[in-house]
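ZP: hey, is the ribulose-5-phosphate complex queued? I don't see it on the tracker
AM: it wasn't, my bad. submitting now with these inputs:
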Amino acid sequence: MVSNGKYNAAKLALELVKDGMVLGIGSGTTVEIFLNLLGERIREEGLVVYGIPTSYQSYYAAIINGIRVVDLVEHEPELCIDGADQVDAKMNCIKGRGGAMTREKIVAKASRKVVIIVDESKLVEKLSMPVPVEVLPFAYGYVERKLREVGAEVKLRHGSGKVGPVITDNGNFILDCDFGVLEDEDVEKTEESVKTITGIVESGIFPKKMIDSVIAGSLNSARFL
Ligand code: 5RP
């Protein structure tokens, strides 16, 4: 079932897309709705849009919708559109329930502008969900111990449709790390302490400084925060 909040957020973001633009394309169901709506504009208005997808999911959705897939070698995205799992009152985000946070963070950082699109149910006062962390399989045991030392409760993410751990599009494991409630002033520090552990590729903490705008969709409308 399509959430109206996701649909309305995606529809408002669509207005930001201009002919000839290079987009950074996040992952997840909200982004997929955005790509389907963009596909309609491409078919109806004959727009040419280039995109750099961050997962197999958004790669195929981009292709199906007539977006010309390019890469970071030749292009710097003007605008990155991505979803999130939690957005706090200061616009810090946690991402990665879909396991694509490493490429999402690379593409977001490479983009001139980053716009997050969410159903308003994702809005919280303070971040509190477990932080997804992508880790090289070889480093798993070591990284898990180190994450516990910095205060996280750690769970290796298991998949459905396959026994054993979820394997990311980059061939790595995901650890869901519960740090409890993250105050605004702790968000960047937590990201840094996670990133300094050898063997960790990336975390799903997207501090507010990376985000230009958030669009929150509700049942009947959407708004920029
Ligand atoms: C994937 C992500 C997604 O953007 C996030 O999980 C939100 O997904 P959805 O739009 O399906 O709620 O970070 O890694």
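AM: back. The chain has two domains: 4-124+208-224, 131-203.
ZP: great, adding it to the tracker
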